[in-house]
Structures are given as structure tokens and as C-alpha cells.
Amino acid sequence: MTVGNGAFSEAKGTAAAVDQPDPFRSLADRLPRAFRFLAVGGVGLLSDLAVFTILIAHWPHPLRVRLVSLAIATLVTWRLNRALTFDQSGRRQSDEAARYAAVAATAQGVSYAVFAVLVLTVMARHPQVALLIGAGIGALFSYNGHRLFAFKPSQSDASTSPARQTA
């Protein structure tokens, strides 16, 4: 493959990417892990709320719409948490994704249950408020599950690499 006037090899492109640190990643590494997790969760919450608000206008069943918005938000937060919040686990991405999905299913299940109870009772007229309350309660389950299970370094990887920040 040629780029501009010279040839570009994947090996050179990969080496150049490793040699030049990403300034955004460098900034993220200096922040406490809990703050990075909350920031990623905020982006996930915004995507969840945006998808929910768009879909609820066209598909007026809030429980079904919430399932779609939760699925999209979960994909967004998995990729951002992988990139910014947690250290490499030393597992294949498919294994890590399965672990992430297990934790996310638990946390999102709690979030969805709180949302469903609220939207079917006292917050029927304000489903976005019910979404926010459910998401806040689900986040309490999510952080430690991801930290202690989904992105926990594998046994072989844990003995060879120092942890970035444990808080």
C-alpha cells in the first residue's frame, strides 16, 4: 500500500504508533481509575439516554426501547473502558467481552429492574428520570464487577505486569 510518495508497511505503521504515545491516553492514565470509570459511564449514560429518547418518540413501549438503549450503551462503555479505564487483562478480547457481558448483564439487570418498577408506577410520565435513577443504581454494581472480574488480569499476566492504579 502506498501513502503519499512512499510505501507504507503495516510493521512500520504499528511501530510508529507504539513509539508515539497517544496524548489522550496519557491524560487518562494520570487520572484515578474511578474517575475514568465515571467519565466512561457518563458517555455511556448519554448514549443510553439519547437512543432511548429518539426511539421512545417512534416506538412508545418504554420497556422494549430501554432494552435497545441499554445494549447500545453497553457496547459503547465496553470499548471505552477497555481503552481508557482498565489495564490489559491478558485475555483474548472474546473472553474479556464475555466477562464484561456477565458483569454488565448483572448491573444492567439491576438498572432495568429499577427503571421498570419506576416507569410502570410513579414515573410513567417521566421515563428519562426513571432511566437516570436506574442507571445510577446499576453503576454501583458495575465498577467493582468490572474491576474485580471483567478486566482483572489473568494469573499469568498479573505476576508480570504492574497495576496502573488500583483505586
Radius of gyration: 19 Å
Helical content class? over 70%
The 3D shape can be described as: elongated
Mean pLDDT: 82
What's the order of the H and E elements?
Answer: EEHHHHHHH
Oligomer description: single chain
Give the distance, in angstroms, between the N- and C-terminal Cα atoms.
44 Å
Number of helices: 7
How many separate domains? 1
- Low-confidence runs (pLDDT<50, min 5 residues)? 1-16, 161-167
How do the strands line up in the largest sheet? Answer: 1-2
> What share of residues are in beta strands?
under 5%
Count all strands and give the number: 2
Secondary structure class reads mainly alpha
Largest sheet: 2 strands, antiparallel
